[in-house]
Design goal:
Shape of chain A: globular
Oligomer: heterodimer
Strand content of chain A: 15-25%
Radius of gyration of chain B: 25 Å
Number of domains of chain B: 2
Strand order of the largest sheet of chain B: 1-2
Helix content of chain A: 40-55%
Strand order of the largest sheet of chain A: 6-7-8-3-9-10
Helix content of chain B: 55-70%
Number of strands of chain B: 2
Shape of chain B: globular
Largest interface: A-B, 45 and 47 residues
Number of helices of chain A: 11
CATH superfamily of chain A: P-loop containing nucleotide triphosphate hydrolases
Radius of gyration of chain A: 19 Å
Number of helices of chain B: 23
Number of domains of chain A: 1
Order of helices and strands of chain B: HHEEHHHHHHHHHHHHHHHHHHHHH
Structural class of chain A: alpha/beta
CATH class of chain A: Alpha Beta
Number of strands of chain A: 10
Distance between the termini of chain A: 56 Å
Chain lengths: 256, 571
């Protein structure tokens, strides 16, 4: 369970996240949507303890974000938007390193690495001998996702996790997170890919300029906005109504 | 040797000065910014300045003042000029050896400009100009006081100011061109598989060459009292600063066969290096760069893999298990170990600094001998214990710090977010992992090399041990200094030009100061003024107290705090 109460992050005169309040019950798969710079990643970075909130509070599984930060870190997993890894390590070495940082026993790490390798179809030779710098973007993303799940977290934050994944892996991943949610894990899923959120998430929260502008199931959002698809709802709520006209007009300026 | 990288049409494009200008604007902005954003008290966001560069400028100005003082000792202007230009050479050359790797072998740059219609020669020229501007930024403050003070040298005058300015700029051009050409030729002719190893060995070699040249030549000048007469020894003619000192004399109006010859050699050397750089290296730069990036070793060797994974097997495994009790320590230790061994960026930046420890004992050996301090016939006359014998172990301690500082930077700095989200209970776990890898991989091996060197030289392992032992004892405390008052997260910061050089400079200065104090105590012990056993017993006690004190004031007992900057390096 995740509880946010007036969570706010201010950078100088810029309010990146503005009094966000939210409760995500266990087992829920929450889609957290917003245009670029809306404050999605900042919210997640606050919840994962990477950056400090300016004001407000948050709880994860009953633990206070500021008081019980270490206990929270033990039970959360995180896939960053950057998908950054230490590229001079092999895939196995990276996962072993992350496993150790979570205090897992070597035998358990080895066992889980094999399971992830099988699931994501990472060949043993690739995992053991190739440096991550030689992996394709998708392969690297598989390692990052594996690293976020290696300690079997209760709450998982995904920030654009499908970056670089091929269609079949995306399908596998979507099924995986649905099953993880069904097992009772809370999933906080940041994205601006409407289609995935529409099909996967139980509940959708849209933020714009740091504030929540919509919160509900897809049908509730459709009902409230009077729009059919999530894409149209999103554009309407984030004041991007004339996007098609603007694109057409802009393309005409290239007629040189 | 590998076959040459094929020259592509892009490589044949002529230099486009508009592109050069655009690239230089970007490079200079990158150099002067720290890469982080922060808030002013007035709440407006601003880009932090790269203070390392400014610190370097200030430090070199002060060091230049010390060099300038030599002019007031009655030194002849020719030899004063050689000394001042030697100083310029070492300042410029060492900075370029360390910093040029990040400029010339920047792999991430290929993703940004690799697809643009920019010719190889244009990119290479922009990089050379950028490096040269960096060298001038160091050479000008370094020569500020030597230029003014040079008027006071024997046979000098006001003309020394323009003459020395011209020759020191020419010296900086020579140093930049030499190193860039060496690296460029390596890129062109060394096989891609061996490039990473060769380039690091080459850097260590160049660093040692320049330090030795800088240290040995002035000592030879002093030893043979060249300041009192104007006769040059033949071997000084092999020393590049002598060529450029000839240029100084020529501009000052001293026209004779020697000054004409030396000036001709200096100008010809620059032309030759420039020709090789622009004709032989620049033409294929883009292709060679993409070649070494694309074909760099992407697989671990069998040895590397086994060493990494078999943590608990064999002697090394047993030692690691014993010293790395906490899992986070082990994770950090292994990560840093891999980067020190495999990552080119880390190696090219760090390895040149690792050689300093052997340089000073070696200089002493070839200039004044390095006798066994415990066997000196007349310690009162000879001084008992040469400062150079203690500079070696003093440097080992501080090279450890350099390594720690170097391990903070990485091109993969974004991946360091993992340390902020992992449940690491205390910052000390991360720090310990870094300290231990530096201790095991750098400090202890260097002490062993130094011990072997002294033991072989003095033919007495006990005496070698007695000289080194107090320094081994204080090594853990000196390593702790880097971790005091701040958090040190491995590979978490993007490298900015000048940072490694400024750290190295601080370390060299610290090593001198500490060597004078602790070496002074050792000197008293060797002379018998205080019993030597007190030095041996006192060093561990002092080290333990200092370690505990530094630990107490450090943040190690606390967990990693969240960051508050908009552009956190590890976010």
């Amino acid at each position: 369970m995740i509880v946010l109460e007036n969570l706010t992050k201010v950078y100088g005169s810029t309010v990146a996240v503005d009094r966000v309040s939210l409760t995500v019950p266990p087992g829920q798969l929450l889609g957290y949507l917003g245009p670029n710079g809306a404050g999605k990643s900042t919210t997640v970075k606050m919840l994962t303890g990477m950056i400090a909130p300016t004001i407000g509070r948050a709880e994860i599984c009953g633990l206070d974000l500021q008081r019980d930060q270490l206990a929270i870190k033990r039970i959360i997993g995180y896939v960053p938007e950057s998908g950054a890894v230490f590229e001079s390590l092999t895939g196995r070495e990276y996962l072993e390193m992350v496993g150790r940082l979570y205090g897992l026993a070597d035998a358990l790490i080895a066992d889980r690495v094999l399971k992830f390798a099988d699931f994501f179809e990472l060949g043993r030779d690739t995992l053991d001998n190739k440096l991550l710098s030689a992996y394709s973007k998708g392969m690297r993303q598989k390692v990052v996702i594996s690293a976020s799940l290696i300690h079997n977290p209760r709450v998982i934050f995904f920030d654009e996790p499908l970056n670089g994944l091929d269609a079949s892996t995306q399908l596998m991943f979507k099924t995986l997170i649905k099953n993880l949610a069904a097992e009772g894990k809370t999933i906080f899923y940041c994205s601006h890919i409407m289609d995935v959120v529409e099909r996967t998430c139980d509940r959708i929260v849209i933020i714009d300029q740091g504030r929540i502008v919509a919160d509900g199931t897809l049908s509730q959002l459709q009902e409230a906005s009077g729009e059919g698809s999530l894409e149209r709802i999103f554009n309407k709520l984030t004041s991007h109504t004339d996007v098609e006209e603007r694109a057409e007009e802009f393309s005409r300026t290239f007629s040189f | 040797m590998d076959t040459l990288t094929p020259i592509t049409p892009v490589d044949k494009l002529p230099v486009d000065w508009r592109h050069v200008k655009a690239l230089l604007a970007v490079y200079f902005k990158q150099d002067l910014r720290s890469g982080k954003a922060a808030m002013r008290p007035d709440k407006n966001q601003y880009i932090k300045t790269n203070w390392a560069l400014l610190m370097l400028v200030g430090t070199y100005s002060i060091m230049g003042l010390i060099v300038g003082m030599i002019a007031f000792t009655g030194a002849d202007v020719l030899f004063y000029s050689i000394l001042a230009l030697s100083f310029t050479l070492i300042v410029v050359a060492l900075a370029i050896v360390i910093e040029s790797g990040n400029v010339l072998f920047n792999e991430s740059e290929a993703d940004v400009i690799g697809h643009l219609p920019i010719g190889s020669r244009t990119i290479f020229l922009a990089k050379i100009i950028n490096l040269f501007a960096f060298t001038l930024l160091l050479a000008i403050p370094a020569n500020l006081f030597p230029t003014i003070c040079g008027i006071a040298a024997t046979r000098s005058g006001w003309l020394f100011i323009p003459a020395h300015l011209i020759s020191s700029v020419a010296m900086a051009v020579f140093a930049s061109a030499l190193i860039v050409t060496v690296y460029g030729l390596l890129m062109r002719y060394v096989s891609r598989e061996r490039f990473d190893s060769i380039i690091t060995y080459c850097q260590v070699g160049l660093a040692m060459f320049f330090i030795l040249g800088y240290q040995v030549m002035p000592r030879l000048v002093e030893k043979y009292q060249f300041g009192a007469n104007t006769q040059l020894r033949w071997y000084l003619l092999l020393f590049p600063p002598t060529w450029f000192a000839g240029l100084t004399m020529l501009v000052m109006g001293e026209i004779n066969a020697l000054t004409l010859g030396l000036s001709a050699v200096s100008i010809l050397s620059i032309i030759t290096l420039g020709f090789i750089a622009l004709r032989k290296v620049a033409a294929g730069y883009s292709s060679q760069m993409s070649g070494i990036s694309a074909d760099r070793p992407r697989r671990t060797t069998e040895g590397e893999r086994l060493k990494f994974s078999q943590n608990r097997i064999g002697l090394m495994g047993a030692i690691k298990t014993a010293i790395l009790r906490r899992p986070a320590e082990r994770a950090v230790f292994d990560l840093a170990l891999v980067y020190l061994k495999r990552n080119r960026e880390t190696r090219v930046r760090l390895y040149p600094s690792l050689a300093y420890f052997i340089v000073f004992p070696f200089i002493a050996l070839i200039t004044e001998g390095l006798p066994d301090p415990f066997l000196q016939v007349d310690p009162l006359i000879k001084g008992g214990l040469s400062l150079y014998s203690v500079m070696g172990p003093a440097f080992v301690c501080f090279i450890g710090q350099t390594a720690v500082e170097g391990l903070i930077f990485s091109e993969h700095y974004r991946a360091a977010y993992i340390f902020r989200i992992a449940p690491v209970s205390h910052l000390g776990e991360i720090h310990q992992g870094m300290r231990k890898v530096v201790l095991m991989l750098i400090v202890l091996p260097e002490f062993i090399i130094l011990f072997a060197f002294y033991a072989a030289l003095w033919r007495d392992p006990l005496h070698a041990f007695l000289v080194i032992a107090p320094w081994i004892a204080i090594a853990p405390a000196t390593l702790m200094v880097s971790f005091t008052f701040r958090e040190v997260i491995p590979l978490s910061t993007k490298y900015q030009k000048g940072q490694q050089t400024s750290r190295n400079l601080m370390i060299v200065m610290s090593a001198f100061i500490v060597a004078i104090f602790l070496g002074g105590a050792q000197w008293l012990g060797v002379k018998g003024i205080i019993p030597y056993w007190m030095i041996l017993a006192g060093a561990p006690v002092l080290s333990a107290l200092l370690y505990l004190l530094l630990r107490a004031v450090s943040r190690e007992s606390r967990p990693l705090p969240p960051v508050d900057e908009k552009e956190s390096s590890d976010g």
